Structure formats: structure tokens, C-alpha cells
Amino acid sequence: MVRRIYTSTRRLKEGMRIDQAIVDRSGRVLIARGAPLDDYLIESLLKMGIMGVYIREGEEDPKEPGSQEPVIPESVQKVIEKTRKSDPAKVKLSESVKQRVSEGIQYLYSNTDAENFADTTDAITRNLMRAITDNQAIAVDISALKVSDEYTFKHSVDVATMAMIVGKKHGLSDKQVYDIGISGLLHDVGKSQIPNEILNKAGKLTDGEFAVMKKHSLFGYTILKDKEDISEPIAMGVLQHHEKINGRGYPMGLPEEKIHLFAKILSVADIYDALVTERVYKKAYSQRDAVEMIMSMTGELDINVMKSFMESVILYPVDCIVELSNGEKAKVVANKPGYILRPTVVGLKSGKVYNLAEDMNCASIIIK
């Protein structure tokens, strides 16, 4: 049996396995989840001001209840087969592609003046574009989007992938989808100019430190604006991805009409991924809570882009098991575009079909 226990850093011992990723503010994984700790890593945690972490005790037991697929009665299985509708094609990244993309991003962020900067960016984006076009992907499974805790700069890959799918749904041309992929990969490149003591700070930033951090989008634009192979829309996405339609974003506090479409799309992807990513200074939100927060930000995010986001991401993939607020476990059998939180499910015991998106009798039932 595996247990997750919160432990004071000073009580950590060599050989303990950490059960959370330690990630700095630029998205670099300093210690991967599941890594065995040694004296050097424990001392590093203390130096970063991290006074407690989750550790993992025990081993997975394949016979443990809940570790296997539930037994579904034949009558219920027939209902599932009758009502099941496959999800639309989803973007998939192979392990080799994940590694190549991740290593490429790390190289770019560490070598912003490299002569092959544009070529490296192009090669990474072609990998992502191929993953979308090879299986005609029009959706992304956001619960499985993470490249891996072990790979650095995964946030940029996540944002780029999500922005490309959302952009495709929003009606962007193939060239624009490709370009927004580049913009997503490079949206945080300006953080390479932020002092490490601010990027790696475990606690809350002071007002002065946050003012410095907010300059990263401007720094990113400065890095890219004179590169011949970086188009203006790509650079605008990097510069403006923290702008808000109410004029309260940064770095310039632009009104809605002056914010580039690329930036509006990147903003949604960036906020979602930041919410579900665990950092040294905050816990991760659940995917459901993050989606609900996105839905509540109608005063800050473009409503049409938000609609495209809701229609192109999948939170509960078909065939996954969920628990309903009425206490019944159910299998997801269909997703309805635009109703990301309310798929159609079949109760595993009752065989009842719950059309959470359209059946008013199910209005009070939610997925827990």
C-alpha cells in the first residue's frame, strides 16, 4: 500500500522518495516526483526555503481494492456499448517526441542568441504539428497533457500544444496554427533574463520581485523581435500573453481591441496549465477546478476563445470511471462539445444513462 505523507524537510532521510515535483518559476524541474532523496537534495530543499514536502511510503499492490477495473454486469455493459460514442481524435505525443521537444525547449531557453535558434524552434514545432495532423487531431485530453514531471520546460510544450488545438478549433489556418505553436513554445523565453533568485524563490514574491517577474513577456519580445524567421504575430503572442481584455493585464495594460488573437489564445492555455501545475510555492488545482476558474474569467479572457477552449479540450475521456455526486460510480460514454464538465455517463450498478449536459433531470448531479 502506498501512502503520501507530509514531512518536515529537516526530518528527511537519504533514500526517502519524494512524492511531488520541485519546480522553479520558469518551469524547470529541480527534483522529479518519485526521485530518491540524498543528502545533497535534502540540503538543496533547505537552501530554497522549502520546509516540508510530501514523501511516498510503501509500494503499489496490484491486488489492492480499486487498483483494477470494476466488474461491470453484462446488462450494464450492453447499455454502455449501445450509448458509447468515441471521443474525437486527440493529439498524442510519443515518448521519443516528448523527449526531443523537451530537450529542444531547454536548449532554446538557454541559448537565445544561438545561430540555429530559428531552426531548432522550427524542428520542435514540426514535431507538434505532425502529432496533430497525423491523426487529424481536433481535441486534447487535458488530464493527460503533461509531458512528464521528469522533463524540463514542460509548461511551454503544454501551452503550445493546447494553443494549437484551440487555435484550430477557432478557425486559424494551418500556417497560423503552426505559428501559434512557436509562440506558445517561446511564450516564457523572457524568463531566461529574470534573476535566478526570483525564478527559484520558494515563497511569495515581494511587490518589487513581482514587478521584475512581470517584465518577462517584454524581455521575450525583445529577444525575438529582430530574429528574421520570427513573424510579428508570434512575437505579439509572446509580448501580450498576460494582457487581459479588461485592460488590467501586463506589461502594457492594453484594451481588448489591441490584444492580438494569438495572445488571447495563449492566455487561456497559459492560465489553465499554470493552475494545474504544482510549484514549490503552490499546490496544483484539480483539472476540474482549473476549468471552472477559466469559465469564471469572462471579464479577463476573450469569450469566443474561451468557447473554442471548451469545445476542443476533453476532461473526462470516454471509458474513464468517475464518481457522481449521488454516490454512484459511472463510466463516461460520450462527450458533448462545449460541455466539458458534463459528459454522458452510465451508472456501473444501475445501468442508468445520465446525460449530464442535456437532461434536466440530471441538473443537480455533478462529477465529484
Question: Could you list some keywords that capture this structure?
Answer:
368 residues; Molybdopterin biosynthesis moea protein, domain 2; Hypothetical protein af1432; four-stranded antiparallel beta sheet; 13 helices; globular
Description:
There is one protein chain. With 368 residues, the protein is α+β, with helices and mostly antiparallel strands. The protein has three domains: 3-57, Molybdopterin biosynthesis moea protein, domain 2 (Alpha-Beta Complex), CATH 3.90.105.10; 70-86 and 318-368, no CATH class; 95-313, Hypothetical protein af1432. It is built from 13 helices and eleven strands. α6 (174-185) packs across α10 (232-240). The chain is globular. The model is unreliable at 62-67 and 147-152 (pLDDT under 50).
